[in-house]
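Fig. S4 source data, part A: sequence.
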Amino acid sequence: MAKDTMNVLFLCTGNSARSIIAEHILNHTAKDRFRGFSAGSFPSGKVNPLVLDFLQQQGISTEGARSKSWDEFAAPNETELNFVITVCDNAAGEVCPIWPGQPISAHWRVEDPAQFTEDTEQARKVIHDVFHVLNRRIQLFVNLPASSLDRLALSAAVREVGEQQ
């Protein structure tokens, strides 16, 4: 990992779909400049198999994908985070731990595929849509001129990315 690699933590409640998708898109897209992680406030303990299948169909590695607690990233001497991005309204509204590194935070709400456990076809459609929205946002995010923006401008730009569909 390059010395100037920035660490990004994507959060949702269960860490089974949305944050997993974002983590793996970022690691696939910008592994030389960014390192993506994901976690949940109340992790489900398993990754949605439909998400893993979809990511693999897109040619994105899912190696190491697992549902984990955000506590792993809040521990002292843990990875210093540059950005913490919530992808669900529940996680955005919760009181988060104190993150190492005083990261910039933003909210990039997307629909939850987990709400369609009884309807596999609808879940697949939502996963498809979530993937494309997050992929677009991550493309915009990784192309921000981070080194030429002050912290306040960068924070505003990252929040603005979350408004893109």
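Fig. S4 source data, part B ends here. The two ends are 30 Å apart (CA to CA).
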